Predict the 3D structure of the following.
Amino acid sequence: MDVGYDVPAEVGMAEAEVETPCLVVDLAALERNIARMQAEADAMGVALRVHGKMHKSADVAQLQIAAGAVGVCCQKVSEAEAFARAGVADILVSNQVRGARKLARLARLPKLGVRVAVCVDDAAGVAELAEAVRAEGTDVGVLVEIDVGAARCGVAPGAEAVALAQAVVAAGLPFVGLQAYHGGAQHIANWADREAAIASVVEKVRLTLGLLEKAGIPCPVVTGAGTGTYPFEGGSGVFTELQCGSYAFMDADYGRVLGPQGTAPVFENALFVLTEVMSTAGPGRAVCDAGLKVMSLESGLPVVFGREDVRYAGASDEHGTLEDPGNVLRVGDRLRLVPGHIDPTCNLHDWYVGLRDGRTECLWPVTARGKAY
Ligand SMILES: *Cc1c(COP(=O)(O)O)cnc(C)c1O
């Protein structure tokens, strides 16, 4: 493939030659993160259904599945389509899908040989889904999402959730189980505070499971958790499946979510925005080529990986301003930036450049980039 037309690198290229700014993946760190999370899920006796909304990459998903993940989660129908076309065989849309057009597309996916499930949080949504599934003549599994404290989607735990599960069964749809995901709890920095937040989630799930059992509705799956809280859901005895996503790459925000007694996170930074210094014209300052168009900043500025002497201080569209009090940076110097928030950052790029020992080993497309509908 000719460099300069569509891609930031070609296989075999040294890291120093890769076009900047671009996303680079430390393949060895990614492999260690994948192996570690799978080993933890296995040790706790729960399934790992990796969240693909973070990397949007069929290649990364296939590595995670090869390591033992049961499938992927994603948030949107178009994202599910992208994963399905790329050969991912078991997909949960861990979100609500509403409206006839979207639901028709969702209900068509099993025709590609894919196992599909989706969340619901009201009876009208169940009716819409049943209609779409009937029209396509396919099977789509259904999870009732309960609001366990994040105040996003989901019905109240307990009686309301049971009523909705009954509506699923009455509509002739397969009731797979409960989704109980607490997004806000993922980013609580303190371990004990996260543990307390998930203890309350587990209580809400237990209450709902008890009432489902009384109503005679089997509930084989309880799914939820993310990179911040998975040890608590995994060890709860009620969750059967973890939906962790960010652990594979990590980001600066998750770098501040600490382990017991304030220990550092156990997952490594595996994804970086590779950037090059393009100006040192101002004293104490350097300017790099990575700004707003290659990184999302809503969770904070990126961290310069492995450097204490310089600091990323501000971004505009195409520029990143670095504080360089010792004037150590030179034009052409390269830095690895750990983005503040990985999910929206990856969605800004077409390619991942996979690096091992300083060389480009692979180029992976961001398969579901822009698939937000
Ligand atoms: C984002 C998300 C996850 C994964 O969370 P991470 O923090 O990236 O590990 C899991 N489940 C749902 C429903 C999500 O929206």
The first helix runs from residue 27 to 44. The pocket of pyridoxal-5'-phosphate is lined by residues 51, 53-54, 73, 94, 181, 183, 186, 226-228, 243-246 (CB under 6 Å). The CA atoms of residues 101 and 132 lie 9 Å apart.
